[in-house]
Amino acid sequence: MDLILYTNPQSRGRTARFMLEEVGVPYETVILDYEGAMKTPEYLAINPMGKVPALRHGDQTVTECAAICAYLADAFPDAGLAPPPARRGDYYRWLFFAAGPVEAAIMDRYRKLEPDDEQQRMLGYGDFDRTIAAIDAAVTRHPWLAGDDFSAADVYAGSQIDWPMQFGMLTPTPALSDYVERLRARPAYVRANAIDG
Ligand SMILES: N[C@@H](CCC(=O)N[C@@H](CS)C(=O)NCC(=O)O)C(=O)O
């Protein structure tokens, strides 16, 4: 098949599958186990990090969940998952914000690291509450991160806040709670979770 998702059902690969289900094109799934398959020379040639997810599309290889979401939105424009290029300000902002500051904030919280004032000036995310408040303000202004229309930024950034909410690491505001409910109601989200579940 032209499109292959390398993943594990208990991984960030769930976000990539959510995106593939939004796109709605056929794809093959290769499940890799954590102990062995992710570290074989064959897979390391696809992702030298030995991590999932990864995507193959023809002769293209894409790793990093955010890049996979952005790539698929561009590769399959008929799915309407990216705004027109001249209107991508918010779209790019939240995709990159979720891959950088949000990811770091959540991982530091997971590791029980709380930055002091001086560290907050150096860290791209500042502190956890400030990072989450930025997303909260965006989804208070409009239903989806890039405006009125759902986009790949919601697949990725939404998933970045959905899972810490599921694990009790993030207490949602009403706006974040409503936002994640809208995300979870997407037929593609439901299908992706059913497959990985
Ligand atoms: N920055 C990567 C993170 C990928 C990642 O850390 N994947 C984990 C599962 S959620 C993994 O494959 N871990 C296996 C390992 O490191 O051995 C992305 O966003 O795709």
Give a verbal description of the structure.
This protein is of the alpha+beta class and 197 residues long. It has 2 domains: 3-80 and 192-196, 3-Layer(aba) Sandwich (Glutaredoxin), CATH 3.40.30.10; 85-186, Up-down Bundle (Glutathione S-transferase Yfyf (Class Pi), Chain A, domain 2), CATH 1.20.1050.10. It is 53% helix and 9% strand. The chain contains 9 helices and 4 strands. A 4-stranded mixed sheet has the order 2-1-3-4, with helices on one face. Helix 1 (13-23) links the parallel strand 1 and strand 2. Helix 1 packs across helix 9 and helix 4 runs parallel beside helix 7 (152-166). It is globular. Glutathione is lined by residues 11-12, 34, 38, 50-53, 64-65.
List the quaternary state of the chains.
Answer: single chain
According to CATH, the fold-level topology of the largest domain is: Glutathione S-transferase Yfyf (Class Pi), Chain A, domain 2
Shape: globular
If you average the pLDDT, what whole number results?
97
Strand content: 5-15%
- Major sheet strand order: 2-1-3-4
End-to-end CA span: 23 Å
Helix/strand structural class: alpha+beta
Low-confidence stretches: none
